[in-house]
Amino acid sequence: MAPRSLSEALAGFSTEQLSALLALREDLARPLPADLAELAARAVTVASTSRAVDRLDAWQRHVVLGLAAAPDGVGVDDLAGLLGDVPRDALPETLQRLRLAALVWGEDAELHVVRTVREVLGPFPAGLAPVSPRPLSPADVRAALEQVGLAEEVILDRLLWEQPTGALRQADRSVTLETARNPVERLLALGLLRPADTDTVLLPREVSWELRGHRLTRTTPTAEPPTLTSGTRPAGVVTPAAVGAAWALVHDVEQLVDDLSTRPCAVLRDGGVPAREVAARGRRVALQPAQAAMLLEWAGAAGLVATDGPRLLPTPGYDRWTAADGAQRWLQLVRAWAATPRWPMAGAREGAHALATDLPVRGAAEIRAGVLEVLARQPVGQRVEPDELTAAVGWHHPVWAERLPLAELVGELLTEAEQAGLTALGAVSPLARTALGAELDEAVAALFPEPIGHLVVQADLTAVAPGPLRAEVAHDLRLLAEQESRGGGGVYRFTERSLRRAFDAGWSSTEVEAWLAEHSSTGVPQPLRYLLGDVARRHGSIRVTPTLAVVRCDDPAQAASLLQRPEARALGLQQLAPGVLAASVEPDEVVRALQGVGLAPVATDASGATLTAPPPPRAREVERGGGEAEPVDARLAADLLLDRERDRRARAEAVDSAVDVLRRAAATGTEVVVDWVTAAGESTTSRATPLTVTSGAVRLRASGQVVSVPLARVVAARPDGPARR
Fold first, then answer.
1. Per the record, where are the segments of Basic and acidic residues compositional bias (predicted)?
2. Contact criterion met (CB below 8 Å) for 382 and 390
3. CB 189 within 8 A of CB 175
């Protein structure tokens, strides 16, 4: 028997069909409905229906537009005629999918679109007016169209595709061709426009259909998604290039975040990093400002950085991340990026601030997943052109093409995908599927380079890393030397400034030399030993002690010369004794000022002991609640919902049976045993005589008292049996 409503259609769903519905419309399972009736009520709410319609692909949306534009109860043959030149064999599968999504119900001979679908699509689906009460014949329409001029054609074109109505005062006026004074009145006289009310004219459905050439929309979408046709590259070339890009991403993020350990970054009121600061940090690690802004967003999404008061700092999560292997570090970055509600490339736009609180974009994770799904469907090596990818994404998500700057968003995502190795050399890589949750192929994971702990130190004061360095080795090397090139390996240069930085951090000359001997495969060249000894000899010849600060010089003449410098006034320097000066600012400020004039001071405590650098500062880790809800286990939800429905039906049948027993007992005046639930929620069983049974309650005489019990609280009733207390 054909269902007569959506509720009846859902009641006939099998477990598999119900599971498919909850998978297609997860919002219906949050929280799980009490029964199928509540499920049907939720399915026809405007919010849920709008969400479901927005997720249809172009072909499915075209079919829904046809159903909404057709009279209710249209047959599949009439629907096919309305859809235009479409493949008939694609309709059954599409209609079944729409039934499973609870947007359509009924058999092929009599299809019904859910009422709220029409509300979501508006009063004129596909820009067609409702069926006219007295439609013109096709021959009459063609004859009338032969009499229109250029001015009338402009008006008809304006009403043809979007909105078939226009404002006109006294639209219901009586007009003939002889009395018509303007193009609109001529169209009214020809019957090509009709008054919808006193102030609105309407383009009749049959006229629009003729003008459109019997097409529902300007362009009829294909039943299959568009394919990418830009050619391919060999997978053996693309895969290594993708892994190289993936490792470069890990390396660049590590450099950028590690820089925050030694140079914490001040943030703006909106939580963002100033553009000038982004550019400066990018220069230090050889990144363009846009790249640096994007990678800061990636680091933030992965929980590697966070704000600590007015500063941006690495988190303890960064330390754990650097201890993992390269493939796992890449996975953490990419999957955090895929799930983030933020749009990283927005932080790279002019006037924007990376990590600002105003960068989250509604639906960002869904848009990103939609683009990645199209990429993941392609074979490895398929070349990707932005225009073709935009067209493919627009077919899968036509609402995005209508409402969003889709071409711009796809272009920005392709930039990020290339940076992360999801595409390489302009072609899809095997890593694209991994971003959506697929396991990383072992053969691909094996291509990630194994970090090493040695380097080649050369006589020109440079060190060459022949491969990616272990995180702790790279951190120490960036402290001891200036990095001159990016990449998994890299070139580092030892300078007076870099070695002094290591001494300032608490390293001694012996420790530096021991570290170099341990990690250099070529020993420590003599020029580097000379430089190290020279810096160590001069380092600490001036010691600063808090007074706020006291400056002690081994050479009294040097102290006297300091007092003659312009900086002395800003520091508030005063001579306390030969070679001893007092400062009115904090010790660290004195140290920086003396370094700025080319000296090599060291900071000491009050006892004269050299102060070492404190541990790198870390921000408190923030609980990063995802913008997206946890996925629904559709099969489990369907099983639970059907169990609830069976329980509800069993209770209803039990109540119906109990009502029959109570009515017979009331008619004969006999006693029965009634199981019911009190107002306090306690179950009880009593021997009682039913007096009256109404549609909502039963009046019972029990133990000499008359009580009224709602039928909803009656569990069971039987003619006789012992009473239970």
1. 618-627
2. no
3. yes
Q: Which residues have a Cβ under 8 Å from the Cβ of 427 and sit 6 or more positions away?
A: 232, 233, 238, 380, 381, 382, 383, 384
Closest C-alpha among 270, 345, 257 to residue 300: 257
SS3 at position 570 = helix
Q: Does domain 542-603 have CATH number 2.60.40?
A: no
The CA distance from 156 to 192, in Å, is: 9
Residues 75, 121 contacting (CB under 8 angstroms): no
Tell me the pLDDT tens digit for each residue of 27-69: 998 888 888 888 999 999 999 999 999 999 999 999 999 999 9
Q: Is 122 exposed, middle or buried (0-12, 13-18, 19+ CB in 10 A)?
A: exposed
Average pLDDT over residues 80-109: 90
Q: Is the pLDDT of residue 627 over 50?
A: no
Which string of DSSP letters, residue by residue, matches 438-449?
PPPPHHHHTTSP
Rounded Cα gap, residues 558 and 362, in angstroms: 63
CATH architecture of the domain formed by 6-122:
Orthogonal Bundle (1.10)
What is the DSSP pairing of strand 705-710 with strand 549-553? unpaired
Rounded to 5 degrees, what are φ and ψ at 51?
A: -65, -40
Give the DSSP H/E element, type plus range, for residue 692: strand 683-693
Question: Of the ranges 45-54, 310-319, 476-485, 701-710, which is most confident?
Answer: 45-54
Task: Tell which CATH architecture fits domain 641-718.
Answer: Roll (2.30)
Q: In sequence order, what are the residues at sequence separation of 6 or more whose Cβ sits closer than 8 angstroms to the Cβ of residue 177?
A: 186, 189, 190
Length of the chain: 725
Residue found under tokens 């007015």: 310
CATH topology of domain 138-211: Arc Repressor Mutant, subunit A (1.10.10)
The answer on pLDDT for 545 being more than 50 is yes
pTM score of the predicted model = 0.74
165-194 average pLDDT score: 89
Backbone angles phi, psi at 373, to 5 degrees: -65, -40
Per-residue pLDDT tens for 288-324? 999 999 999 999 999 999 988 888 999 999 989 988 8
What Cα–Cα distance (Å) separates residue 436 from each residue in 369, 385, 433, 681? 7, 21, 6, 49
In this structure, of 13-27, 250-264, 407-421, 601-615, the range with the lowest mean pLDDT score is: 601-615
- 170-202 as b/e: b if 16+ CB within 10 A: ebeeebeeeeeeebbbbbbbbbbbbebeeeebb
Mean pLDDT of 423-440: 92
Phi-psi region of 170 (alpha: psi -120 to 50; beta: other; left: phi over 0): left
Domain 247-357: give its CATH code.
1.10.10
Q: Strand, helix or coil at 354?
A: strand
The one-letter amino acid code at 395 reads W
Output the pLDDT for position 656: 64
594 CB-contact burial (10 Å; exposed 0-12 / middle 13-18 / buried 19+)? buried
